[in-house]
Structures are given as C-alpha cells and as structure tokens.
C-alpha cells in the first residue's frame, strides 16, 4: 500500500476498497449534516457497498492517471479523504477536493493533508498549479484554502450546484513557484 507520511500524526494512503469502505461510510453517515450541504453526492452513499464501488473506481482512475483519491489517516485511523479530482496534463494542473469526519475537525488535519497533496503534486507529478474550489458560503473551506497558502483567484458566478441550487464558487490557487518560495508550504514530513 502506498502511504505518504506527513508528520507523526497524519498520513495519506491509497485506499483498499474492501477494507476501507465500511469505516469511510460510517464517517460519512456520522458527518452527513456537516458535509452534505457542500458535497451533494454524500446522500447517494446508501451503504458500505456504494463506498466500495466508489473506491474501486477511484483506484481505476489512479491507474489511468486521471485522478488521485487517498484516505487521510490520523494516528493510523481513517478520518476522511482528499483527492486530485482530475488532472489536466497539458496545463499541468489539478483541483484538490477533500472531506473530513466531523469529530476530527479543528485539529489541523486538513491543513496537513493539503500540504501533503501539494508536496505530491509539485514533487511527484511535476504540476504547475493546484486549485481549490469552494462555494462562497462554505466559510470553513475558504478559510482552509487561505490558511494553506492558496491565493483567491476570483469568484465564478453560479458555478457550483448544491442541493438547494446553484452557488457562486471561489477559486483558490497555488503555483509551484509560490510553493517553492515558501519553506512552510513545501516542508514535507517532520
């Protein structure tokens, strides 16, 4: 299993669909009220089998080099997922998506996971730019992007379809040169 150790507490790992589906599904159910407003697909996850199918597809996309989905581990316990949703190989860019179980928020885990993904993206995939997209009203995700060193590029009108309709979406970005210039951003495992 591929594991990327960020520090003593947080690591990222390729999912093992049969093993990881149940704990991820349980996290989604426990965190549904906080996650579902921003990630409408959560309501379509009805069973661990649905999660397993998603993970199997994610692993196929990894093999095809179209996306990268990894589980976030906190003290070796699955606490969420983070991904490069799709690669644009010509432009050398991607978009980060993430979710975290409610009980694990406020511990800096997502910040570390984003840092790890940026390290992977810029070092291993030789990307030029990584973006984070967040509905304008999703205060937590917008603050997370800002704290992670991303710059607000702008707002796309009615870009993101959520359960209650279309919302404006902020686009945050970090370029490889910005990442290289900031020791706190490009510092990998402790």
Automatic annotation (TrEMBL):
Q: What residue stretches are annotated with the N-acetyltransferase domain?
A: 25-177
UniProt xrefs under Pfam families: Acetyltransf_3
Q: What PROSITE patterns does its record include?
A: GNAT
The record ties this protein, via InterPro entries, to: Acyl_CoA_acyltransferase, GNAT_dom, Ribosomal_N-acetyltransferase
UniProt protein name = RimJ/RimL family (RimL)
Q: Which organism is it from?
A: Fructobacillus cardui
């Amino acid at each position: 299993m591929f594991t990327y150790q960020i520090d003593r507490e947080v690591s990222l790992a390729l999912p093992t669909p049969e093993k990881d589906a149940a704990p991820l599904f349980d996290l989604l159910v426990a965190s549904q009220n906080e996650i579902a407003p921003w990630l409408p697909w959560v309501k379509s996850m009805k069973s661990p089998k649905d999660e397993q199918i998603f993970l199997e597809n994610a692993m196929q996309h990894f093999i095809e080099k179209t996306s990268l989905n990894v589980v976030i581990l906190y003290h070796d316990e699955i606490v969420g997922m983070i991904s490069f949703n799709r690669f644009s190989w010509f432009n050398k860019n991607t978009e980060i998506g993430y979710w975290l179980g409610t009980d694990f928020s406020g511990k800096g885990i997502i910040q570390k996971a984003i840092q790890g993904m940026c390290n992977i993206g810029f070092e291993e995939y030789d990307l030029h730019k990584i973006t984070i997209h967040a509905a304008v009203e999703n205060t937590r995700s917008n603050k997370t992007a800002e704290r992670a060193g991303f710059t607000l590029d702008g707002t796309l009108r009615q870009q993101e379809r959520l359960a209650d309709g279309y919302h404006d979406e902020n686009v945050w970005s970090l370029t490889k040169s910005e990442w290289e210039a900031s020791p706190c951003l490009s510092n990998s495992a402790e």
